[in-house]
Specification:
By secondary structure, this protein is of the alpha/beta class. Helices cover 39% and strands 13% of the residues. The strands form three sheets. The chain has a seven-stranded mixed sheet, sandwiched between helices. A three-stranded antiparallel sheet has the order 9-10-12. The protein has a two-stranded parallel ribbon with strand order 1-11. α7 links the parallel β6 and β7. The structure holds pyridoxal-5'-phosphate.
């Protein structure tokens, strides 16, 4: 059986059209975008600015508001640390959520060790942060609220527009990690009332190693303390020679994600629901993690009662899925996201994440259903107590 990739939340392959656009910038157009004295530099700079406009267009921003980084992790660090440093006079309190990516949670923990107070809001069973809880958590010393747009493990969409409105009313900045949401669901920094937004190329068929932070320039103009000092690239917010080929690819990836969003979202939703229906029609004890509707179109997280997710995966080696977050799957701890749902350790350990994407076909979905059903069934059979065989003591009498 050919391998089936259903882990698009972890990463995506580079779209061939994106790769094609990148290649000249590895070869003949290799200039440094910061070289102002010759055409090699100018063509690189032009390409970077064209890409900046493409990235901005995907999220409804101005090109000047886009700061290129090495990915969403760095963008999250720059946003949260950068705001806390720049606004230290105003306060030292950050509000975030229990289901955030570790790029946000670990950054907040690092700030906690430097004396910043961090409030981590719980989520409901549906995985959604209550905007009223955000409002209650904001105090006179709060400088930033950081709540993700879409969760990477269960796909749940957060009420960013409501949270953005609350943050604005209270005069607090709002950052959102949109690494999973951008390019998959409509996202507009104006409508969402977001002041800072993190995105990543490799989640939307662009290359790994590039991302961006949107930084609002008007109403309000967000101040940010740089976390990487050097040549003053990116308006002094992020120094370092720009990876022109990666940025060109990121721009193209944003263009395609935007122009194909509606159609692709509908297609993925159909395939995802086919996968879900196919599994629950043949297996008992399967529950959905997260909100049924407020969810990314291609994400499905299921708990399989009585088996471990890791075990189910071992039994279907040709289907690539994930148990818990990719970033934490090196450790055996159940994912903090699933635990935050309050489903309990066993259900968390019994969960699998299916991430459908651009290459996913109906035939792959059907083959995956077969593989999952077979693997879960085998495990459940194996763990049944052997009722027919009598115990040795009974056999004697
Ligand atoms: C993938 C991901 C990140 C990390 O992005 P990188 O570009 O790999 O650093 C951060 N947040 C979320 C929600 C993600 O899905």
């Amino acid at each position: 059986m050919p391998r089936i990739y259903l882990d698009h939340n972890a990463t995506t392959p580079v779209d061939p059209r994106v790769l094609e656009a990148m290649l000249p910038f590895f070869r003949e157009k290799f200039g440094n975008a910061a070289s102002k004295s010759h055409s090699f530099g100018w063509e690189a700079e032009d390409a970077v600015e064209a890409a900046r406009a493409q990235v901005a267009a995907l999220i409804g921003a101005e090109p000047k508001e886009v700061v290129f980084t090495s990915g969403a992790t760095e963008a999250d660090n720059l946003a949260i640390k950068g705001v806390c440093e720049a606004y230290a006079e105003n306060g030292n309190h950050v509000v975030t959520g229990a289901m955030e990516h570790n790029a946000v949670l670990d950054t907040c923990r690092a700030l906690g060790r430097r004396g910043v107070e961090v409030t981590v809001l719980p989520v409901g069973r549906d995985g959604i942060v209550d905007p009223d809880a955000v409002a209650r958590a904001i105090g006179p010393r709060t400088v930033l609220v950081s709540i993700m747009a879409a969760n990477n493990e269960i796909g749940t969409l957060q009420p960013v527009a409501e949270i953005g409105r609350i943050a604005k009313e209270r005069g607090v900045l709002f950052h959102s990690d949109a690494a999973q949401a951008a390019g998959k669901v409509p996202l507009d920094v104006g409508a969402a009332g977001v002041d800072l937004l993190s995105i990543s190329a490799h989640k939307i068929y662009g290359p790994k190693g590039v991302g961006a932070l949107y930084v609002r320039r008007r109403d309000p103009r967000v101040k940010l303390a740089a976390q990487v000092d050097g040549g003053g690239h990116e308006r002094g917010l992020r120094s370092g020679t720009l990876p022109v080929p990666l940025i060109v690819g990121f721009g193209k990836a944003c263009e395609f994600a935007g122009s194909e969003l509606r159609e692709e979202a509908a297609r993925l939703r159909r395939l995802r629901d086919r996968l879900h229906r196919g599994i629950v029609s043949r297996l008992d004890g399967v529950t959905l993690n997260g909100h049924v509707e407020k969810r990314l179109p291609g994400t499905l997280s299921l708990a399989f009662a009585g088996v471990e997710g890791e075990g189910v995966m071992m039994g279907m080696k040709d289907v690539a899925v994930s148990s818990g977050a990719a970033c934490t799957s090196a450790s055996i701890e159940p994912s903090h996201v699933l635990l935050a749902l309050g489903i309990g350790e066993d259900a968390a350990r019994s969960s699998l994440r299916f991430g459908l994407g651009r290459s996913t076909t109906e035939a792959e979905v059907d083959a995956a259903i077969e593989a999952v059903v077979a693997s879960v069934t085998r495990l459940r059979e194996a763990s049944k107590p052997p009722r027919t065989r009598p115990k040795p003591t009974e056999a004697v009498s």
